[in-house]
């Protein structure tokens, strides 16, 4: 309903023996009301659309999903490994770039778990020399190294929407596959999960996870998920999330290194070094897209045609042919619990 339509309907209800031309008293009296009603219709249409999960965004999607007990995942803090030349006290603080870390737990001699004090993926970003915020006697070197549990940004709309619709397609209850998937995905640091019921006999469940950065999870994350689901010391006793009688084994996804060989035709005067960064970037983007689908597919298939299409989007590349994946001129079908890991690209270059 537009302003013009509403105004016309209102004027039609006025007797014709009354002046209702533009600028008349009656016209000026009802025109503002017609405008406000038109705005109301716009708002009604908007609120009608966001009442459905497939169109809702932001807080309205959060409200909708909350009706099914599905809550938006909050941002979390990264847990990293710090390596030092000496023992350091817990709660010591260090900085690198624009992030700070606090020591929360000792791993072994001179190695500690550090928690980023800033939430989100920024805690996964940096590595290298740490600077102490407070004086520590005997400290000569401090290095921020492995990501033990990745930090996560607040869950985006599309991820939350997918979990909502997944819950509609397969009802979660009593330790079924959908229940394990739903509860495991809620754990910090977990980006995807595959569940294998009765994998080693009745009552056994194997859970394979990928971390929230879409990489092979560190052993610390695997151990944490194992403890949350079914602690090793008391397997099957129901002391974790898993129901009593379920013996759960948690494993991390494996990585399959992939070397790409191809013949590239570049613009005149360009070499492989000129396009190397762009080649690695588009290939990693493709592999990350594949990793996002890992827990929804039986096997990831790395397709030569998709790689070639993305490489051809690089403006310096004119043509590509004879592409091979791990020395084979065919698509690469990975094992069910494997994700692609870019190794290197070897290009035979010609210039047109």
UniProtKB/TrEMBL annotation:
Residue ranges constituting the Baseplate J-like central domain according to the UniProt record: 172-251
InterPro entries registered for this protein in UniProt: Baseplate_J-like_C, Baseplate_J_M, Phage_Baseplate_Assmbl_Protein
Stretches assigned to the Baseplate J-like C-terminal domain: 258-345
Superkingdom of the source species: Bacteria
Stated family: Belongs to the Mu gp47/PBSX XkdT family.
Protein name as catalogued: Baseplate assembly protein
């Amino acid at each position: 309903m537009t302003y013009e339509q509403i105004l016309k309907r209102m004027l039609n209800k006025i007797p014709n023996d009354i002046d209702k031309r533009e600028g008349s008293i009656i016209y000026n009296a009802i025109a503002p009301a017609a405008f406000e009603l038109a705005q109301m219709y716009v708002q009604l249409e908007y609120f009608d659309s966001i009442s459905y999960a497939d169109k809702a965004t932001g807080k309205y999607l959060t409200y909708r999903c909350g009706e099914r007990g599905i809550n938006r995942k909050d941002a979390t803090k990264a847990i990293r490994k710090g390596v030092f030349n000496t023992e350091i006290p817990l709660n010591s603080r260090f900085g690198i770039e624009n992030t700070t870390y606090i020591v929360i737990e000792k791993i072994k001699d001179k190695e500690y778990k550090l928690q980023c004090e800033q939430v989100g993926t920024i805690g996964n970003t940096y590595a290298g020399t740490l600077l102490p915020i407070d004086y520590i006697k005997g400290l000569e070197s401090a290095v921020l190294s492995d990501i033990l549990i990745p930090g996560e940004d607040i869950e985006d709309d599309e991820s939350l929407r997918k979990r909502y619709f997944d819950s509609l397609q397969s009802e979660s209850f009593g330790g079924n596959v959908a229940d394990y998937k739903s509860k495991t995905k809620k754990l910090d640091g977990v980006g995807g999960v595959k569940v294998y019921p009765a994998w080693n006999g009745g009552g056994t469940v194997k859970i394979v996870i990928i971390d929230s950065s879409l990489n092979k999870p560190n052993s610390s994350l695997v151990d944490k998920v194992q403890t949350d689901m079914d602690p090793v010391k008391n397997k099957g006793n129901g002391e974790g999330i898993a129901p009593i009688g379920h013996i759960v084994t948690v494993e991390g996804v494996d990585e399959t290194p992939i070397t790409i060989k191809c013949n590239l035709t570049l613009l005149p005067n360009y070499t492989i070094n000129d396009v190397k960064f762009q080649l690695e970037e588009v290939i990693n983007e493709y592999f990350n897209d594949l990793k996002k689908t890992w827990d929804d597919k039986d096997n990831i298939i790395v397709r030569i045609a998709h790689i070639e299409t993305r490489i051809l989007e690089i403006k310096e590349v004119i043509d590509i042919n004879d592409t091979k994946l791990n020395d084979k001129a065919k698509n690469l079908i990975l094992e069910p619990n494997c994700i692609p890991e870019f190794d290197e690209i070897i290009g035979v270059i010609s210039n047109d």
